[in-house]
Amino acid sequence: MRAKGKSIKSDLKRLDAMSDGDIDYSDIPPLDDSFFTKAVVEWPKKKETVTIRIDKDVLHWFRAQGRGYQTRVNRLLRAFMEAKKRGGKAA
Prior knowledge:
Elements (H helix, E strand, L loop, with lengths): L8 H9 L15 H6 L17 H9 L4 H17 L6
């Protein structure tokens, strides 16, 4: 686990210089054929492009969070939807 605030970029050169022999695989169990027969590929749900009207300050706040803001908006909408399906009291 990396230290709080430490960028992963600081480790990239070190990792790039490693050979396959330098990597410790001892804690990874071996995979047999049963792993691949049980494996399930789950494709992401198809997204639909929509036009939605959002308050300007809300949109700016999400965009200020950086790349992936549309995914975060989608996750929040999904959480709201699932809470309502469970009978939750959402605003």
